[in-house]
């Protein structure tokens, strides 16, 4: 049986590698790009820990989690809570970068939608209306220059 959203993926095994009955539906349908991004994040967090010469036991204690959960996080397991990933970023001194991930200014899809909506709402001006507005602007500039 395959997962409807992602052909070729087994619906019987969740993204975390466990039984589908134990894994939430969102983890079962995790897009491959999102899974890869989590794996890269986990790998980067593991590298940061090693570069700081911290053992898994010490780092897990600082995060307030078990060593097995730390191992899952460093593998990019989507079942590990976002709060644990955020705390790991905080330990690295990188938590300030977290809000930028979903910054509205970087949300290209929403920006395109906003522009499309604005174009639909825009009133069509007549040529006379445009000429009158331009003439008012020229008069205002002449008055400022005087």
Q: Can you tell me about this structure?
A:
With 146 residues, this protein is an all-alpha fold. Helix content is 58%, strand content 0%. The chain has seven helices and no strands. It has helices spanning 25-28, 32-51, 56-63, 67-74, 82-92, 108-121, 127-145. Helix 2 packs parallel to helix 5 and helix 3 packs across helix 4 (67-74). The termini are far apart.
Order of helices and strands: HHHHHHH
Strand content: under 5%
Detail the poorly predicted runs: 1-20
- Separation of termini? 80 Å
Q: What is the global morphology? A: elongated
Number of helices: 7
Indicate the mean pLDDT: 81
The count of DSSP E runs of length 2 or more, i.e. the number of strands, is 0
For the CA atoms, what is the radius of gyration? 26 Å
Which structural category fits the helices and strands?
Answer: mainly alpha
Estimate the helix proportion, in percent.
Answer: 55-70%
């Amino acid at each position: 049986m395959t997962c409807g959203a992602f052909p070729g993926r087994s619906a019987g095994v969740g993204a975390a590698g466990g039984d589908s009955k134990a894994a939430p539906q969102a983890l079962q349908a995790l897009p491959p790009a999102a899974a890869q991004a989590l794996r890269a994040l986990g790998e980067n967090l593991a590298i940061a820990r090693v570069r700081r010469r911290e053992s898994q036991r010490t780092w897990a204690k600082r995060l307030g989690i078990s060593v097995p959960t730390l191992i899952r996080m460093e593998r990019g397991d989507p079942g590990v809570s976002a709060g644990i990933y955020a705390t790991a970023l905080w330990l690295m001194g990188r938590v300030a970068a977290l809000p930028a991930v979903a910054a509205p200014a970087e949300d290209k899809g929403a920006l395109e939608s906003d522009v499309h909506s604005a174009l639909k709402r825009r009133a069509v001006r007549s040529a006379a209306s445009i000429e009158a507005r331009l003439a008012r602007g020229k008069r205002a500039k002449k008055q400022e220059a005087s």
